[in-house]
Amino acid sequence: MRSLSWKLGGALLLIVVVSVGLMAYIVNLSTTREFRQYISHGNMMYIQSVENALSQFYSQGESWADLQETLGSMLRSRNDRLVVADSAGAIVGDTTREWLGKTVKEIGLGSGTPIIISGREVGKLYLASAGAGMGMGHMMGGGGMFVTPMLDTAEQDFLDRVNNSLWIAGLIAAVVALLAGLILTRQITRPVRALTRGARQVAGGDLGYRVNVKSRDELGDLAQSFNAMAYSLDRSEQARQRLVADIAHELRTPLTVIEGTIDGILDGVFEPDHEHLSSIKEQNALLTRLIGDLRDLSLAESGQLKLELASTNMVDLVRRKLSQSELEARGKNIQLKLNVAQEVPEVSVDSARMEQVIANLMTNAVRHTPVGGSITVSIATSDSGQQVEKPNLIISVADTGEGIAPEHLTNIFERFYRVDHSRARSEGGAGLGLGIVKQMVQAHGGKVWAESEPGKGSVFYVALPLAAV
Ligand code: ADP
Predict the structure, then answer these.
(1) Is any atom of ligand 1 closer than 6 Å to the C-beta of 250?
(2) Could you identify which of 8, 269, 300, 446 might form a hypothetical disulfide with 185, taking C-beta atoms 3.0 to 4.6 angstroms apart as the criterion?
(3) Calpha distance 3→1 (Å, rounded)
(4) What is the pLDDT of residues 360-404, one digit of tens each?
(5) In this predicted structure, what is the pLDDT of residue 130?
(6) Which H or E run contains 174?
(7) Ligand 1 in contact with 356 (CB < 6 A)?
(8) Cβ(461)–Cβ(395) below 8 Å
(9) 412 lines ligand 1 (CB under 6 A)
């Protein structure tokens, strides 16, 4: 596998080498050019000043006699050589004395800088940078005839030193850039490797695995999202396992009763009479209801619940449900009351589902209200409040039962959640009633919540949005 660090490192190396090399090359070229121009300019100025001095010298005596003695003092540096020829081309001055007495033609000097006094050419001046290897070809004149000078050793040395420094600086920059690149590459690849390891662990079923990446950049964000994903996977896996266990548990109880009764009848222990057959039928009905509830819950949770919405008068619907609970309530001497606000608009709901919601709340209220208590159902509209932001129709079911402790209050809407397992079982509750209420109301875009004061009673609220009418 070609790892990311190799790819990043390779790309970085290429960029550094190309850019530093290019930069060094360009700086080198321009430094040499600038430096040469600078030297040329210097030479021109020098030639001009020597030419002036020579003009003055000639003017004084109208001849080049004794020039040789003065010429030496005009030298700029030991590396320079000055040669002067008279108007006939005979060399009358040479700072090295080598060509004294010879002619320009003999030596083959090119066109030098003319020395002109009052429009008359009295001689010619030649300048050479007399460095090692310098020959006649490099003798220069001044003015327009100036040729690009070769650099002398000292100047060339200077340029070489500048170039060397440039290459060293380039090399240091390349090493620093490479080191920084390597550190950067490691910073990128380490979290990526950790994330890959994490993804493999989670895919292998280790849902408790978390990635340890602390960086505060996009990779840190990615690691956090990964951990959040693993956490939610872990939670839903646990919920799935709990659900399967709960369902198995809930189904086993009525099935055991049915099996026991049938075994008793077959073994001749029980008579196949009305009492035992009724018990079987009762458990069967319990199973059917349980399975129906589970199906509704799973449909609602997966958002597949089909609602047959129609404009409905909730007051009529609640009244119907109250009258169905009346028989049971009268058996416990519970008083049923209905409070209706004056103006209650119709809402768009699936009336069968809403009947299920009210029935579940009423069954709970009757079940948890002691003999002689009361249940009050209220219907009113609310613009907005603590629990709802939009205008809502609020239906509340208040009882004078034992109430619910705060630690249970937040959980009672979860499926299979029961405050008191043994008691609820004896009374037939599987802990699905409020879960169904919540899912049905949410499917309508509404909200449910409960308030309770232990020992005094509970109030369950259903809020249905009015805007959906
Ligand atoms: P169940 O079918 O077991 O009643 P629910 O989901 O309807 O399940 O209720 C969950 C739990 O909430 C129950 O175990 C019960 O203890 C508690 N509960 C529900 N309604 C009331 C109420 N009106 N008063 C007190 N406790 C209640």
Answers:
(1) no
(2) 8
(3) 6
(4) 999 999 999 999 999 999 999 887 666 777 778 999 999 999 999
(5) 42
(6) helix 153-203
(7) no
(8) yes
(9) yes
Rounded Cα gap, residues 397 and 463, in angstroms: 12
Q: How far is the CA of 365 from the centre of ligand 1 (A)?
A: 8
Q: How far is CA 191 from the centre of its chain?
A: 13
Distances in whole angstroms, Cα of residue 213 to Cα of each of 3, 169, 234, 430: 20, 37, 19, 44
Distances (CA, A) of 3 to 10, 86, 186: 11, 79, 12
Maximum C-alpha span of the chain: 162
Strand order in the sheet with 392-399: 335-340, 374-382, 392-399, 457-465, 447-453
- What is each CA distance from 17 to 131, 161, 175, 219, 442, in whole angstroms? 36, 21, 10, 29, 64
For ligand 1, the distance from its centroid to the CA atom of residue 358, given in whole angstroms, is 14
How wide is the angle at C-alpha 57 spanned by C-alphas 53 and 63, nearest 5°?
140
Q: What are the Cα distances from residue 51, in Å, to 91, 136, 143?
A: 16, 20, 11
Helical H segments across 332-445, by residue range = 351-368, 406-409, 421-426, 433-443
The CA–CA distances, whole Å, from 457 to 103, 398, 408, 432 equal 133, 7, 14, 21
Rg (CA), the chain: 53
Q: Which of 334, 362, 412 to mutate to test the pocket of ligand 1 (most atoms within 8 A of CB)?
A: 412
Both tokens of residue 348? 């768009």
For 46, 67, 253, 290, 462, the CA distances from 77, given in Å and listed in that order, are 11, 18, 117, 113, 106
Q: In testing the pocket of ligand 1, which one of 289, 374, 411, 434 has its CB within 8 Å of the most ligand atoms?
A: 434
pLDDT of 284: 94
Cβ–ligand 1 distance for 404 under 6 Å, the answer yes
Mean pLDDT to the nearest integer, 334-348:
91
Band of the pLDDT at 161, cuts 50, 70, 90? confident
